[in-house]
Amino acid sequence: MTVVVDDGSMNQIVAERSTAGWVHAARGAAALGAAMGIGRFAFTPILPMMTAGAGLTAEAGATLATANYVGYLAGAVAATLSPRLARSPAVLRWSLVAVVVTLLVMPLSDNPIHWALARLVAGFASALVFVTAVNLMTDRLRNHSPHLAGWGFSGVGVGIAASGFLVLLLPEGVGWRGAWWTMAVLAAVLAGGAWSRHRHPGAVAVATDRSPSPRRKTGRWFAALLVCYTLEGVGYIVAGTFLVAAIEQSSPGWLGKSAWIVVGLAAAPSAALWAWLGKRVSHPDLLTAALALQAAGIALPAVAPGPVAALVGAILFGVTFIGVSTIALAAGAHLGVPRAVALLTAGYSVGQIVGPLLVAPLLHRGFHTVLLVGAGVVACAAATAVILRAGYPELEFD
């Protein structure tokens, strides 16, 4: 029996499918915006306010950052060890609630220990949101255009930009406590936007690696990739934590907060951009270029203080930090090493823990010195990426 579908019906089906894809991407972006853009990174523009209003020292700020990254590593490991945890809509919902609660409790205390505990839990919850949201979004976008998932990742940049913009608009009398309250409200709004995407059950897609021939040993390339990505975790988190404070050290306060907004705006479309480039340029070349640009962006505000350098540095940092993750994880999957994504994520998380601890003894010299150290580490990551070029089993481009 032949079924005839007229052109009008077919066009309607295509349109509805396209709309559904964008809805799933938007809801995934909302979840990532709440957990990552706000839950993890709102601390960056609020850090100078806590330094001025709560007496938070630079060393204590580094400790709070480290607590968040330890929590993130623990959450990532938990999701890796428990497949059910990594695919549970209920875990995602409760983790979003936990992120909002940790933002709410920050202004309720003046005790750095309480702050550290809140940041620890925020890190754990944000990791669970990241893993589950990405899994569920990937499942729902399995039969859609690949760039939609990239736009889903834009939520991280949107959250960063929104948090920076709101902090910039806050009246002076609001202070750091009001900033945390504001972030909690923003995260709650984004979490609400993500909530409904999980009403419809569905199996989680298991990623299929487009790997090179199994007869070919890829361990040496993966080892270089793991070192590269771990170094990126160190350098990127130094900039992500102290960029605003470094700019404000030699410029008006509004410039630092504006630079953080620029970071978010640059990051928002970057995942889709790097995913598009990844189908046209080899992983090692793309990774080397992204890391070199990021190192320059981190160093620029330190070596050339001023509005232009600050904003250009923010653009370079914003457009690359999500892109580096996109490229590195794609390269790991391509190399076909078992549990490649989990291993790379663990290395990246370890780097984020080491970063603040590495620069803590240097904070008395000022934030510019800290940025230069971060840029140097990212430059080392770029040099490591060059090693990947030697005999790398390339993708077959369409």
Strand content: under 5%
Morphology call: globular
Number of discrete helical segments: 15
The total of beta strands comes to: 0
- Write the H/E string, N to C: HHHHHHHHHHHHHHH
Helical amount: over 70%
Structural class: mainly alpha
Query: Uncertain regions: pLDDT < 50 for 5+ in a row?
Result: 9-16, 197-211
Q: Class of the largest domain, according to the CATH hierarchy? A: Mainly Alpha
Radius of gyration: 21 Å
Averaged pLDDT: 83
CATH-wise, what's the superfamily of the largest domain?
MFS general substrate transporter like domains
Name of the CATH architecture of the largest domain:
Up-down Bundle
Say what the CATH topology of the largest domain is.
Growth Hormone, Chain: A
Largest sheet: none
Distance between the termini: 36 Å
- How many domain units? 2
Quick description:
By secondary structure, the protein is mainly alpha-helical. The chain contains 15 helices and no strands.
Protein architecture, described:
With 398 residues, the chain is an all-alpha fold. The chain has 2 domains: 20-198, Growth Hormone, Chain: A (Up-down Bundle); 209-398, MFS general substrate transporter like domains (Growth Hormone, Chain: A, Up-down Bundle), CATH 1.20.1250. The chain contains 15 helices and no strands. Helix 7 runs antiparallel to helix 10 (253-267). The longest helix has 34 residues, at 7-40. The model is unreliable at 9-16 and 197-211 (pLDDT under 50).
